[in-house]
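Re: the 366-residue chain
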Amino acid sequence: MRRCSFVILMLVACVSLSAYGVPSITVDEGNSWYGKVREYANPFDPGRQYDNAVIDITVTPGWTDDTLRRIVNRVDGSNAPNGGGRLTKTGDSRGELVWMTFTAPGSSSFTAGTVIVSQTVGSGFSHTMDYTFKLGNGTVKADGTLSGGSWREIGELSQSGNGSTNTFYIANPGGTYNTFRLDITAGYNGGITYADFSEVLILPDKLDYVKPSATSNYGGWGSAEGLLNLNNSSSSGWAYTGGARIDNEDVKVTFTFGDVPQKLDAIVFWSFDHYADATFTLQYEDASGTMVDLATISMPYNDPKGWVLPVELTESLYTTKVVMNFGNSGANVNFREVMFFEKAIPEPATMSLLALGGLALLRRRT
């Protein structure tokens, strides 16, 4: 059967610019989900150029930018210790509040229906680090303020530096913006002061997090339940690190939502530190209890070794079970987190406005 990738045009443009492979989502042409599974567009890297993306970044004066674009370009997502980007400063400036901003290309506007942030902190830092997330419209000035506008704070989190932890934070701010700001209380380690962060993901849809249960038939590093930790866990993640199974059984991670079919509109995969291509078949259980292929997903091994891949389902999927099927290839892959979402139901006031808008459109047509 012929297979078609919905990102093939972007991949052609991207391969010419990148020295490594990039994630892809592939669906059989005869599959009922053909044309309905795709990667959410990235407002900071619309051309999917990843490490070649030109992103407008400003930082606190006196600090050095170390691959900050990786915070927003979906490269090395939640990959300790190499993921994301950081500001650095020689000497002990612990406790200093520093900032970094990311503006969409051409100051184009983006909708922030859902903002997901991830931070991995290694051990050895001297104190707790605090993070504040903001959105805004306008031009960022040298002092970090906005010309023609003000910053809107959408959330914050705090992490201790005395142990390795991984934390996710999800917000649904709504609204349209052209820039994102991250404020960090810097930490000190070994003669260098750091202000780093792993990943910021901005999606247009307002999404509600759905937490299933998780099991795996492979007992590698971590646990399947570790893929659903979200907050302050040093054991977050699951890895398929062995060779091919002797019994030839496919290696699977199974997510179960209960007896009643769950509505799903988006799935976000956070991978890190692969030693082989992380290729798997995404499957779901249909109404008859049969497992059906939804898509084949590839998050390739190279440098970088990790990715964030937000998958959008343009048609809602209703199911009681989702499976990541890795086959029996003996691949060595690592995942930090898997997140499931359904689109939020509009509030009554919003629904009324939508209804009024529909009536106005009908009147206009008649």
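The chain has a mean pLDDT of 83.
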